C-alpha cells in the first residue's frame, strides 16, 4: 500500500465555516473568524495576546522586529532547525551563534548556552523539536541573569506542555505554525503569542505594515497613518475560518495523533532493542503532542539505505533538517566554526516516519513490517 508522509486532518466543519466567512463579504485579515481564533488561543493557553500571522515565519520575523534586532546583534539558536528560525533574525542583520543539541530530545543543549553569550547577545531562540519541550527553566534563568530575550520557536509545539505550561507561553514571544504538515492546519498560517505586555501595542502596528490601522478601526485615533516599520503579516479571515474548526477540535486531533504515536512506539520497541536503533525520548516534565515519530539509525549509511528501501515500497519516510551551520548561507553569514558534534551526528542518522491523525492501524503495521523486513 502507498503510505504518504503526511495528510491533513479535516474536522468536517471547515467548509461550513468558510462559507459563513464568504457570506459576510469580509475575507481580509482581522475580521470575525480571526478574532475568534485570537480569543480561543488566549483563553486556551493563557497568553497576554495572540495574533494570527500568515506563517510561523511571519511570527518569528515580527519577534525580530519587535526586539529591534540590529546589524551585528547575536542570537543563540540550534543549528538543527528549519531555516526560518535563523532567517527571521538574519533579515534584521542578526548573527546566529550556533548551539549544539541534546542527544536525548534533539533540543538546544541548555548546558552549552551560557558559554556562547557575549556583549552582543540579544536573544536565545529555543526550538521545541517534535513537540517536546526544551529545558525552559534553565533557559529562562540564563536569560534573566544576562538580560536576554527568549523567543520560543514552537512551530511544532502547539498543544504540548512543559511542567503543565503550554509551549509558546514561557518566553517573551511564542511562535506557532499552522502549516499543512502541522497538527492543526489551515494550509499556511501561524500565530505570535505575546507574553510580555510591553510589546502588545507595537505588535499590532508591526503586523499592520507599520500603520495604526487597528487603533483607527477601534476609534482610538482619528487618522490612519504610517507610524513604524512593519509588513503584511495578517492571515486572511477565510483561512482563519478553516483554522478555527481545527482549533476547536484540538483535543480530538491530539488524541488521534497520540494513539498513532503510541502504537508506533509499542510495535517498534522490540525491533529497536534487537537492531539497536533509537526511538524518541520524552522527559518526564514534558507532555508532547505527537507531532512526529522518528527513529535514529546506528549509522548514516543505514539511514540512507532504509530511506531508499521504504520509498521503494511506497512508504514516504524522509530525513529532516540539514544543519544550518553546514548550509551554504549558514557558512556565509556565520563563518566562525562551531563544534556541534551531536548535531552533526544525529542529523545524519534520523528518519521521520509517516505521521498524521488519520493514519490507520494497517498502515502503521505496514510501516513497522517493512522496517523489520529491511533489518532481516
In short:
This protein has 376 residues and is α/β, with parallel strands linked by helices. Helix content is 39%, strand content 12%.
Account of the protein in words:
The protein is α/β, with parallel strands linked by helices. The chain folds into two domains: about 15-250, Aspartate Aminotransferase, domain 2, CATH 3.40.640.10; about 250-375, Aspartate Aminotransferase, domain 1, CATH 3.90.1150. The protein contains 13 helices and twelve strands. It has helices at about 15-25, 30-45, 55-65, 85-90, 135-145, 200-205, 215, 235-250, 250-275, 300-310, 330-335, 340-345, 360-375; strands at about 50-55, 75-80, 95-100, 120-125, 150-155, 160, 165, 175, 190-195, 285, 295, 350. The strands form three sheets. Strands 1-9-8-5-4-2-3 form a seven-stranded mixed beta sheet, sandwiched between helices. Strands 7-6-10 form a three-stranded antiparallel beta sheet, with no helix packed on it. α4 links the parallel β2 (about 75-80) and β3 (about 95-100). The longest helix is centred in the last third of the chain and has 26 residues, at about 250-275. The radius of gyration is 21 Å and the shape is globular. The relative contact order is 0.17. The model has no long low-confidence stretch (mean pLDDT about 95).
List keywords for this structure.
376 residues, alpha/beta, Aspartate Aminotransferase, domain 2, Aspartate Aminotransferase, domain 1, 2 domains, seven-stranded mixed β-sheet, globular
Amino acid at each position: 500500500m502507498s503510505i504518504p508522509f503526511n495528510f491533513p486532518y479535516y474536522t468536517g466543519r471547515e467548509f461550513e465555516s468558510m462559507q459563513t466567512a464568504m457570506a459576510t463579504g469580509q475575507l481580509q485579515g482581522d475580521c470575525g473568524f480571526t478574532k475568534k481564533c485570537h480569543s480561543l488561543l488566549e483563553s486556551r493557553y493563557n497568553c497576554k495576546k495572540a495574533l494570527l500571522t500568515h506563517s510561523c515565519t511571519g511570527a518569528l520575523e515580527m519577534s525580530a522586529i519587535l526586539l529591534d534586532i540590529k546589524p551585528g546583534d547575536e542570537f543563540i539558536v540550534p543549528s538543527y532547525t528549519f531555516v526560518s528560525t535563523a532567517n527571521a533574525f538574519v533579515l534584521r542583520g542578526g548573527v546566529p551563534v550556533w548551539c549544539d543539541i541534546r542527544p536525548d530530545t534533539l533540543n538546544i543543549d541548555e548546558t552549552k548556552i551560557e558559554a556562547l553569550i557575549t556583549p552582543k547577545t540579544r536573544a536565545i531562540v529555543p526550538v521545541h523539536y517534535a513537540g517536546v519541550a526544551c529545558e525552559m527553566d534553565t533557559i529562562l534563568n540564563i536569560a534573566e541573569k544576562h538580560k536576554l530575550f527568549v523567543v520560543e520557536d514552537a512551530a511544532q509545539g502547539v498543544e504540548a506542555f512543559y511542567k503543565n505550561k503550554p509551549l509558546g507561553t514561557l518566553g517573551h514571544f511564542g511562535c506557532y505554525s499552522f502549516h499543512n504538515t502541522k497538527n492543526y492546519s489551515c494550509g499556511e498560517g501561524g500565530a505570535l503569542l505575546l507574553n510580555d505586555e510591553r510589546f502588545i501595542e507595537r505588535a499590532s502596528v508591526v503586523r499592520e505594515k507599520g500603520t495604526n490601522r487597528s487603533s483607527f478601526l477601534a476609534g482610538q485615533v482619528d487618522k490612519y497613518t504610517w507610524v513604524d516599520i512593519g509588513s503584511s503579516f495578517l492571515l486572511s479571515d477565510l483561512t482563519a475560518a478553516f483554522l478555527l474548526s481545527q482549533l476547536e477540535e484540538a483535543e480530538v486531533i491530539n488524541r488521534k495523533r497520540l494513539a498513532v504515536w503510541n502504537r508506533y512506539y509499542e510495535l517498534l520497541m522490540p525491533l529497536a532493542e534487537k537492531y539497536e536503533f533509537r526511538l524518541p525520548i520524552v522527559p518526564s516534565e514534558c507532555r508532547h503532542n505527537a507531532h512526529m515519530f522518528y527513529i535514529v539509525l546506528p549509522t548514516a549509511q543505514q539511514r540512507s539505505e532504509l530511506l531508499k528501501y521504504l520509498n521503494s515500497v511506497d512508504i514516504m519516510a524522509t530525513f529532516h533538517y540539514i544543519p544550518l551551520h553546514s548550509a551554504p548561507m549558514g557558512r556565509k553569514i556565520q563563518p566562525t566554526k562551531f563544534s556541534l558534534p551531536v548535531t552533526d551526528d544525529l542529523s545524519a542518522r534520523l528518519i521521520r516516519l509517516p505521521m498524521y491523525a488519520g493514519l490507520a492501524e494497517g498502515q502503521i503495521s505496514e510501516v513497522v513490517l517493512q522496517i523489520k523486513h529491511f533489518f532481516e
